[in-house]
From TrEMBL, chain A:
It comes from Arthrobacter hankyongi. This is Branched-chain amino acid ABC transporter permease. The keyword Transmembrane applies. Keywords: Cell membrane, Membrane, Transmembrane, Transmembrane helix. Its main location: membrane. It is found in: Cell membrane. It comes from the Bacteria.
Automatic annotation (TrEMBL), chain B:
Residues 35-62 are annotated as: Disordered. The keyword Transcription regulation does not apply. InterPro entries: ABC_transp_permease (IPR001851), BCAA_transport_permease (IPR052157), CarboxyPept-like_regulatory (IPR008969). It comes from Arthrobacter hankyongi. PANTHER family: BRANCHED-CHAIN AMINO ACID TRANSPORT SYSTEM PERMEASE PROTEIN LIVH (PTHR11795), HIGH-AFFINITY BRANCHED-CHAIN AMINO ACID TRANSPORT SYSTEM PERMEASE PROTEIN LIVH (PTHR11795:SF371). The chain crosses the membrane at residues 158-180, 192-223, 243-261, 282-310, 341-360, 372-401, 413-429. This is Branched-chain amino acid ABC transporter permease. Residues 53-62 have a biased composition (Polar residues).
């Protein structure tokens, strides 16, 4: 077993673009759940909006990259309105059920064979990220960072992804310390109290849903960039639940919690995969196969989510007094 | 409830969690030993074990199996073929869910057996969000191939939809009762459905007759419900854990249980004994025997459940707790006992629903429960969250809607209609068909 290799692989996950995508998706959930108390279980649907918005506008309509991103954002805003209008007046768990159902509807629609020409059905779409890589300011070559060596393309994806995450974090931080953010927190703590102060709770909730959803769409775009492809199977309910795990791991009502949570999530996943696979190949573990080892990691995610929720619901960074649960 | 946090149940809770997983893992040795023995009966060249998705069917001529016929599937850049087994069954494993051309090689048919006149060969097979797809090649003279007109198709879909709706209702009653009595939206209910089918598969693999395996699997489902409540949910209620954290705990439990099942069961689809039963013709309508049997079983069980809820003391107590737990407790009803019984009965019914769902799909897979979880939610929401009879009505509507929609929609979009209807109903009548307004605000 090559411990050094496993360790550097796991550390490399800290700055990987997938981690950035998870961080951004979870940040969207922090706006929804951590600050406003909305139970959005359809973040995968928002991510699919961003990813397919970019892919379809680039491939079908030959739009430039920026237009594709814009289309993804507009789609996610429309999706947020579609979800919010029927459910934001109802009790919290209705939004949970409707968002998860809507995200699955999106997945079924992009998987159907009837729309193969547009969505590529189960096989998905690829080759729509040239516009993004054409913007690469780094000269060709390989770059040596502390523990990883990256090609100029990989470096550009990482720099762009984390710059976006940083920008969004600052945005959330500024929003949440503004009077607008204080109203959101008020809604989370006691909706009726805020309503009695004359605030339009419904409108604030909708704004929160839209903003978090746009973060979701950007996360979906980040998720597709390193792969240059989008596949419907990636946007199932598991993705949403993993984002929730990241969020609750770091701390729901914090700005940096989702980012830290995503980093921890991927480092632990990568580390356990490396160790388990290494041990199996070296013959130390014989009673499970490498496929089963993969499943073992996801069992671990489920158990971790339960234990977190029971024993440390505020997450690593959170404040016990500001827990977002009623 | 928050005002009385208790620390005493914490270690117990942790121990209970561990026990819960131990129970889930109990079937492990049997699983590992038996999976290969009970897998695909056909000596196929494109091994189904190698791929998660399969195309399958049974070749029969006048009710007699036709062995030794070559069947080939091509599409999605893949080609594989197989030979029908002694029981006439064939299975081809394919890498991705998509559209395939399935061809019966007519030269390999035995002497005197021919495709029915007008039968499509090769025919197009499309996966409908499940990991297996069926292809039927009608053999012999005088077999009606394309005869079904719209009216007959509609009746067939109605019967199938009723059967599907009733099995959904069975599985969803537990979900609705648990919500009504404890307020928990249980995302792990889908895995309770899977558990029933998987348990039956393993028990049948041990050599038990199908009916005994089914009964034991249903009992196993009840035990899992009881253990879940005693080990996890009751301690959480005692701690005064909020509903939202409990909902997220149930998501964690769902993930852990789903992948635990996959760990031992594998990613493929397996068939329960008797899954490829004969078709029964009633007048103009042709329907699978298993679908009809499933319809009868669910109708009887639901009738029994309705009787228990309306006529017995326990049923009245359950409805009282669902209506108002505090008031029920004040009138001397042991609320905790009622909730434990609700969990047990919910587990029993979910397991039974899972077995019927495995025959309906057909096939057992680790994520089969997850596939119907949202349809159950749709049924329960449609009927009115927390009401038992609402769950029945809503589920039957969802089942029929799903099947009828296949007359116009692609098969891989059939779940979309039901989920859309749920969202639209929430827009206009959020309390559902039988629900009361105060529950939603």
């Amino acid at each position: 077993m090559d411990f050094l290799n496993i360790l550097s692989g796991a550390l490399g996950e800290i700055i990987s673009p997938t981690t950035a995508a998870y961080a951004l998706g979870a940040l969207g959930l922090a706006v929804h759940f951590g600050y406003t108390g909305l139970l959005n279980f359809g973040q995968a649907g928002f991510m699919a909006m961003g990813a397919y918005g970019l892919a379809i506008s680039t491939l079908t309509f030959n739009a430039p990259f920026w237009v594709g991103v814009l289309v993804g954002l507009v789609l996610s805003v429309l999706f947020a309105f579609l979800l919010g209008i029927p459910t934001l007046r109802l009790r919290a768990d209705y939004l949970a059920i409707v968002t998860i159902a809507a995200a699955e509807i999106i997945r079924y629609v992009v998987t159907t064979n009837r729309l193969t020409d547009i969505t590529g059905s189960a096989g998905g779409l690829n080759g729509f990220t040239n516009g993004f890589y054409a913007l690469n300011p780094f000269p060709e070559g390989r770059y040596n960072l502390l523990f990883v060596t990256l090609s100029y393309r990989d470096l550009w994806v990482r720099v762009a992804a984390w710059a976006l995450v940083a920008l969004c974090c600052v945005l959330v931080w500024l929003l949440m310390r503004s009077p607008w953010g204080r109203v959101l927190k008020g809604i989370r703590e006691d909706e009726n109290a805020v309503r009695s102060l004359g605030k339009n709770v419904y409108s604030y909730k909708m704004q929160s849903l839209v903003i978090g959803g746009m973060f979701g769409a950007l996360a979906g775009i980040l998720f597709t960039l390193p792969r240059s492809s989008v596949q419907p199977a990636n946007y199932g309910t598991e993705l949403t639940f993993f984002l929730w795990t990241c969020l609750l791991l770091g701390g729901a009502a914090t700005v940096l919690g989702p980012v830290l949570g995503a980093m921890m999530f991927w480092v632990v996943l990568s580390l356990t995969q490396g160790l388990l696979f290494g041990a199996i190949e070296a013959g130390y573990i014989t009673f499970i196969t490498t496929t089963q080892a993969g499943q073992l990691r996801f069992i671990m995610v489920g158990v971790a989510l339960m234990l977190l929720m029971i024993f440390r619901p505020q997450g690593v960074l959170g404040n016990k007094k500001e827990m977002a649960f009623t | 409830m928050r005002s009385r946090p208790k620390l005493a149940p914490l270690p117990r809770l942790f121990a209970a969690l561990v026990t819960l997983f131990a129970v889930l893992l109990l079937s492990a040795p049997g699983a590992l030993a038996l999976a290969p023995a009970t897998s695909s009966p056909s000596p196929s060249t494109s091994s189904p074990e190698a791929y998660p998705n399969t195309i399958n069917g049974v070749l029969r001529n006048n009710g007699q199996p036709v062995p030794g016929v070559t069947i080939r599937a091509t599409g999605e850049g893949f080609s594989g073929e197989t030979v029908t087994s002694a029981s006439g069954a064939w299975t081809i494993g394919v890498p991705v869910q998509g559209t395939y051309q399935v061809e019966l090689i007519e030269s390999t048919l035995p002497q005197g057996v021919a495709l029915a006149p007008g039968a499509q060969n090769p025919r197009t097979v499309t996966f409908a969000n499940t990991s297996n797809a069926g292809a039927i090649f009608p053999l012999g003279e005088g077999i009606k191939v394309q005869g079904a007109n719209f009216g007959e198709q509609l009746i067939e879909r109605l019967v199938a939809g009723l059967s599907f709706g009733l099995l959904l209702a069975l599985a969803a009653v537990g979900l609705s009762l648990i919500f009504g009595t404890t307020g928990l939206t249980n995302f792990a209910h889908g895995e309770m459905v899977t558990l029933g089918a998987v348990l039956m598969f393993f028990l049948a693999g041990l050599g038990l007759p199908a009916w005994l395996a089914a009964v034991l699997a249903v009992i196993g489902g009840g035990v899992s419900g009881y253990v879940q409540d005693a080990g996890l949910w009751r301690p959480l209620r005692r701690r005064g854990t909020g509903l939202v954290p409990m909902m997220i705990v149930s998501i964690g439990l769902a993930l852990a249980a789903r992948y635990t099942i996959q760990l031992f069961f594998g990613g493929g689809t397996q068939q329960l004994p008797g899954a490829q039963g004969p078709q029964i013709t009633l007048g103009p309508v042709s329907i699978a025997q298993t679908t009809l049997l499933s319809l009868v079983i669910s109708a009887v069980v639901i009738g029994l459940l309705g009787f228990l809820l309306l006529r017995t003391r326990l049923g009245k107590a359950t409805r009282a707790v669902a209506d108002n737990p505090a008031l029920a407790s004040a009138s001397g009803i042991d609320v905790d006992r009622v909730i434990r019984i609700v969990w047990t009965v919910g587990g029993l019914l979910a397991a039974l629903g899972g077995i019927l769902w495995a025959y309906y799909r057909p096939g057992v897979s680790f994520n089969m429960g997850q596939q119907v979880l949202l349809l159950m939610f749709a049924g329960v929401t449609l009927g009115g969250l927390g009401t038992v009879f609402g769950a029945l009505v809503g589920s039957v509507i969802v089942g029929i809607l799903v099947e009828i929609s296949t007359l116009w929609l692609e098969a891989d979009l059939k779940f979309v209609g039901a989920l859309l209807i749920m969202i639209i109903v929430l827009l206009f009548r959020p309390q559902g068909i039988l629900g009361r307004k105060e529950r939603v605000g």
